[in-house]
């Protein structure tokens, strides 16, 4: 998969990835539902834990609005299992260990970490509509209030 600048209205790049607890998730298999696809840097880090717990705490509302939540990072399934179990996350965590999906969605960026340049996931969320098109994109996500923004946009997308 090659990276291109995705925009609302574009077809969301399809993928199939190992997931905890589902075993495997294929995006095209979720057609007919809204998908909240959030990319986060690393399991069990402060910002990622807060973001994932915010999605957990709003999961029932998101489900009632017809959305499926998927978290994705470069962590292994074993790491995802520990993270999901520790925080009772009720949605699948996908393991993109080869960075294929991260690259397709153009979320791998150079970041400063303790004064060093490192490649990492830029916290990003994609709202995908039931036809598989991107309805909205959030890049450089600030965790505080993000899930509320996603809920508002989801409700607006449904008219």
Question: Can you tell me about this structure?
Answer:
This protein has 159 residues and is of the alpha+beta class. The protein has helices spanning 46-57, 59-64, 77-87, 100-104, 146-157; strands spanning 16-20, 23-26, 34-39, 67-73, 93-95, 108-113, 116-121, 124-128, 134-138. The chain has a single domain, classed as 3-Layer(aba) Sandwich (Glutaredoxin). It contains 5 helices and 9 strands, in the order βββααβαβαββββα. β4 (67-73), α3 (77-87) and β5 (93-95) form a beta-alpha-beta unit.
* Architecture (CATH level 2) name: 3-Layer(aba) Sandwich
From the 3D structure, determine the CATH topology.
Glutaredoxin
Q: What's the CATH superfamily, by name?
A: Glutaredoxin
Overall mean pLDDT score? 93
Low-confidence stretches: none
Report the structural category.
Answer: alpha+beta
Biggest β-sheet: strands ordered side by side in the sheet: 2-1-5-4-3-8-9
Helix content: 25-40%
- Order of secondary-structure elements: EEEHHEHEHEEEEH
Give the amount of beta strand, in percent. Answer: 25-35%
From the spread of the alpha carbons, the general shape counts as globular
Rg over CA atoms:
15 Å
CATH class: Alpha Beta
- Give the domain tally: 1
Question: How many beta-strand elements?
Answer: 9
User: How many individual helices?
Assistant: 5
Alpha carbon gap, first and last residue = 33 Å
**Largest sheet: number of strands, sense, barrel closure:** 7 strands, mixed
């Amino acid at each position: 998969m090659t990276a291109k600048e995705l925009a609302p209205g574009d077809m969301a790049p399809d993928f199939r990835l190992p997931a905890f607890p589902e075993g495997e998730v294929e995006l095209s298999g979720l057609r007919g539902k809204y998908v909240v696809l959030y990319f986060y840097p690393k399991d069990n880090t402060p910002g990622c834990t807060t973001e994932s717990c915010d999605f957990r705490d709003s999961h029932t509302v998101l489900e009632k609005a017809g959305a499926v939540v998927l978290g994705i990072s470069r962590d292994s399934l074993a790491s995802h299992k520990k993270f999901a179990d520790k925080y009772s996350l009720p949605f699948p965590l996908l393991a993109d260990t080869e960075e294929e999906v991260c690259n397709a969605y153009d979320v791998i960026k150079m970041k400063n970490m303790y004064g060093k340049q490192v490649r990492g996931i830029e916290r990003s969320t994609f709202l995908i509509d039931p036809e598989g098109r991107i309805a909205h994109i959030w890049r450089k996500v600030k965790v505080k209030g993000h899930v509320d923004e996603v809920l508002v946009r989801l409700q607006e997308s449904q008219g």
